[in-house]
Amino acid sequence: MAQIQVQHQAPVSGPNGVAPGAAGGAQFMLTSLYVGDLDVTVTDEQLYQLFSQVAPVASVRVCRDLASGRSLGYGYVNYNNLRDAARAMDLLNFTPLNNKPIRVMYSQRDPSLRKTGTANIFIKNLDKSIDHKALHDTFSSFGNILSCKISTDSFGQSKGYGFVQFDNEESAQNAIDKLNGMLINDKQVYVGHFLRKQERETALNKAKFNNVYVKNLSKSTTDEDLKTIFGEYGEITSAVVMRDADGKSKCFGFVNFENADDAAKAVEALNGKKFDDKEWYVGKAQKKSEREHELKAQFEQTMKEAADKSQGANLYIKNLDDSIGDETLKELFSEFGNITSCKVMRDPSGISKGSGFVAFSTPEEASRALAEMNGKMVVSKPLYVAVAQRKEERRARLQAQFSQMRPIIPSVAPRMPMYPAGAPGLGQQFLYGQAPPAMLPPQASFGYQQQLLPGMRPGGPPVPNFFVPMVQQGQQGQRPGGRRGAGAVQQTQQPMPMMQQQVSCMHVY
């Protein structure tokens, strides 16, 4: 087991081995444990045998895919009291099972805490020898840990970073203040608040930078020229013009400043200036992923602005004859106003798709064209004309229309009873001659018994109507006028396939 060479205080714990705050704020089931990082070969029986060594286990479940039956890599273990659950989590966390360490934590049914990332911290530049347990032991001195994990590759090797989530922000901040920049196994680590991808990208855009990118340079520009021009704004550590294998300039380069404020001043002063009849672009040096994200955001913003500007002035036309082209379409609609663009949509081979767009300068002109041209016969085909919508708007409108059009069909059908309040509870039987509930049409030919859901006791409250009565094969129904006082028909209870899995396996940590 890897050891982390950092001095830290004794772990904080409360009565019964449960850390303070484990039940406060977050909604935890203190007798139910979540077991993650399971090997796909681990079975319910193996999980039961491992956890029953600590205390009697109420139930276990390895969650599996409903279609394939393959393990999802996590499961649940339920104890009868919180003392046993706390002891099992303390003793069995990171225990190898089928040669893979498991991760044990309290079952957290409310996903809001996980999704918001509250009190979650990120650790990077970790030594590859540090594993889950070593990380957990180090950070447990700052408070109660809900989840602790080292990110690994497909071979189980550490990627050099991990995550620790505490039950409160104070513990997380304390860990950041004490350990950020510390040497752990001779490597200086970064410890900070966890940020989701979108938040990280926003932070990157606002972050200061020292490295400046310059493009559109002339062929004659040298490294010394860059140092001279950019040196006026601050101390430069390096300046280079990028060249190909033959030594020819690629017409772009990089300048690195010692101070981030100097880099910002250089960008502001030199971006757009002309040198040797070339207008320079000067900006923050970015990674490829950052550039792609920025360009995508700019494109989406441009498209949105264009759509907002032409809102109500752009018309969608379909049911066009194949002979109609851009010019013919423009002639058809030009009488209603000034047309800014007109296009018939075509496939790659140039054949008309039978649809197109006509954009007017004002929404009023488009409204007149819509009123006059919708339904008009053009080359023996009636045109369909409507205001053009973006894909997202069209999908939302169609979904709203579909939900309004769906008929409400009663779910009561023969052999599928719905039990109203006051109806016999689970496990009770209906006798021949006994009137069924009012919501179920009388059926003289079948006696039936409700199916019992695992974990529910007989005589309990009614449940939803997904319990279908199962009639034993070959059973004869009662004929009209049959003997009175006949006993209840005994039936073999049929199992409810997949039901237990659907009830228990709801989320992944």
Automatic annotation (TrEMBL):
Residues 31-109, 119-196, 210-287, 313-390 form the RRM domain. It is found in: Cytoplasm. The keyword Repeat applies. Keywords: Cytoplasm, Repeat, RNA-binding, Translation regulation. One of its GO terms (molecular function) is RNA binding. CDD domains: RRM2_I_PABPs, RRM3_I_PABPs, RRM4_I_PABPs. This is RRM domain-containing protein. The keyword Cytoplasm applies. GO terms for cellular component: cytoplasm. InterPro entries: Nucleotide-bd_a/b_plait_sf, PABP_1234, RBD_domain_sf, RRM2_I_PABPs, RRM_dom, RRM_euk-type.
